[in-house]
Amino acid sequence: MNHPRTATHPAEESNSTPLRLGLHANLAQFTLLVAVNALVGGMLGQERTVVPLLGEQVFHLTGYTAALTFIVAFGLTKAATNVVAGSLADRHGRKPVLVAGWLIGIPVPLLLIWAPSWGWIVAANVLLGVNQGLTWSTTVIMKIDLAGPTRRGLAMGLNEASGYLAVAGTALATGYLAATYGLRPTPFYLGIAFAALGLGLSTLRVRETLGHAQLEARDRNTSDNGPRGVLTAGLSTRQVFLLTSFRDRALSSVSQAGLVNNLNDGLAWGLFPILFASAGLSVSRIGVLAALYPAVWGAGQLVTGAASDRYGRKWLIVGGMLLQAAALVLFATATTFWPWAMAAVLLGAGTALVYPTLLAAIGDVAHPTWRARSIGVYRLWRDGGFAVGAVLSGILADSFGLRTAITVVAIITATSGLLVAVRMHETLHRTPPRPSNAEAAGNTSSQR
User: Fold this and answer.
1) What is the dihedral of CA 125, 130, 133, 135, to 10 degrees?
2) Per the database record, which ranges form the Major facilitator superfamily (MFS) profile domain (predicted)?
3) Do residues 163 and 131 make contact, with C-beta atoms less than 8 angstroms apart?
4) What average pLDDT score do residues 42-65 get?
5) Of 67, 246, 285, 408, which sits most exposed with the smallest number of CB within 10 A?
6) Are 67 and 274 in contact (CB under 8 A)?
């Protein structure tokens, strides 16, 4: 589809299969990775309905902040692991990182089943954070490797849709299982199955994709034209961190929007089930609401990822953040199931506009030789939002109540969207020339 070449990756030299970029050329592996990422999402989804209720009903935690410690542990661990995953993927290849992530994820459902105290739940979420940081980051990187430069938005839409549809389906399934069989152990049997399947597929069927990134790098280096704002090769990890976090206007705008997006997701994960339970909803109905938001989020990305390839990244991000803010206001003011269901649909739609588009924008700007590291840094900030959201919303809820906490997060989300509107340039368009290495490393601010 894109850039047919005759290069081969060392792992494939035995059958002399040429590497090519594009979804069509790599359809079998891309589809396999979509399935693997669905299993990654299922590992996360096993917690969305049940674990907040475990804290309240089994371990009798008092205070919202204490109940959200499992999300803080997950968010901080996953954020740090994302950076490590990007560096390891550039250095040692993608597949070993993916397999390692699944090995670390195997104990998670077992700990959730047998945990005698809340500290064990927190420990399980440390392992879950490492699992998600290694596996989800790597599937993102591998799909960007395979897709090439022209279908990144579609590739990220398919990746994130598979993951979050699995989150939704598992949250719904565990809600019904918990209502029928109790909060433990039955709902977490799904996690055992997901971990076993993920490890088996990643070990036996997934192929290394580092060679595809190297092929794209050679294509880009020999091309006269490149995407507007794309930065060149040869940057250190420190330079990549500073560019992605602060110096590059597009990359840093994406990073802060990702952080705020997951800030409100941390709120939704930890406090929404408690809010719904306080209104007298049954566990099965709480499961429906917990599943509805990621279901719309997941399915919507099948449309929004491809739309960002056609219409651009910036305004989808802005619109998505503002829509999320409006949805959170509705969550804060509603008191019954159906208005909350409408708010969940709006929150999922807003997140669908943002999630694959942010990753595609990173792929637009970052050079293939350090793109995995840039994705890792972006995901550091984005998934750090889980921890920030859990701490901030927990403190606000303890001090001022659940609804005030949700309203404050809505204001933060709207502000983030406006910041993207003011600061970020459109990353999709292609115009010559590319900046030099010296400009990229030392004078990034002057490029904008």
Assistant:
1) -110
2) 21-428
3) no
4) 89
5) 246
6) yes
Distance of alpha carbon 213 from alpha carbon 146, whole angstroms: 8
CA 32, CA 249: separation in Å to the nearest integer? 35
Q: What is the pLDDT of residues 429-443, one digit of tens each?
A: 644 434 434 334 444
Q: How many CB atoms lie within 10 A of CB 339?
A: 13
Q: What is the CATH number of domain 21-447?
A: 1.20.1250.20
- The answer to which of 41-45, 139-143, 186-190, 267-271 has the lowest mean pLDDT is 267-271
Please report, for residues 130, 337, 378, 390, the alpha-carbon distance to residue 344 in angstroms, rounded to integers and kept in the order given.
Answer: 28, 10, 26, 19
Match 């992530």 to its residue by tokens: 101
Among 82, 44, 71, 64, CA closest to 387: 71
Measured between alpha carbons, how far is 188 from 178 in angstroms, rounded to an integer?
Answer: 10
Cis peptide before 435 (omega within 30 of 0): no
- Return d(Cα 391, Cα 113) in angstroms, integer: 25
> DSSP states of 279-333 as a string?
TT--HHHHHHHHHHHHHHHHHHHHHHHHHHHHH-SHHHHHHHHHHHHHHHHHHHH
The span from the CA of 139 to the CA of 144, in Å, is: 9
Tokens matching residue 329: 């206001």
Q: pLDDT, tens digit, for every residue of 171-186?
A: 999 999 999 999 999 9
In Å, how far from its chain's centre is CA 1?
27
CA dihedral sign of residues 351, 356, 360, 362: positive
Q: Kindly state the tokens that stand for 218.
A: 């050679």
Return the pLDDT at 148: 78
